[in-house]
Prior knowledge:
- The protein has 210 residues and is an alpha+beta fold.
- The protein contains three helices and ten strands.
- It has one domain: Cyclophilin, CATH 2.40.100.
Amino acid sequence: MKKAALALLLACALPVIAAPAPAKKAPAGKEKKMTTPRDYANTLVTLQTDMGDITIKFLYDKAPKHVENFVDLAARGFYDGVLFHRVIPGFMIQAGDPQTKEPEDPMHPYGTGGNVVNGREVRLKAEFNDTPHKRGILSMARSADPNSASSQFFIVVKDSNFLDNQYSAFGEVVSGMEVADKIAAAPRGPNDRPTAPIHIKKAVVTQPKG
């Protein structure tokens, strides 16, 4: 089970580091609009799925860059419409590949996509930490390169401590684990893909009040 599980989560494509876009100057005579910095440590994201809602809080002190990446992607609608493309009962459910919003391209199968910026796939430096991969933990999928996480993530539905210190845990489900269990138990075909599509209809970011 351990080897199979690791191989499963190493399905992301090997990307390259994205170059930052050049900063845009504000038009002459106009003041730059100031925005309040996001309070990542207290932000929640609710995944509204075909089977119900899953709400996540984040471990900002453990993996700040992974939290920022996930929350920012959710806030701009990146995850809206993606599929849970891999589910294994008694283990985990995986989503976050933007390619799953479209019919599958055999040259770029589901599970190989990520967040592409300026034609290049964004990669995150690993933030392995002391958070155990217990039931309800949110963690990032990656390729064989530890520093290759991009947008794909998984939620553990059963304690899986063999993943500890190999994947960057960065969040935890605070409500909706029964929904995650239903997704994990869905009938599946080849590559552990649900036979009936299960979408994240919308990822809703909730800002702290006050």
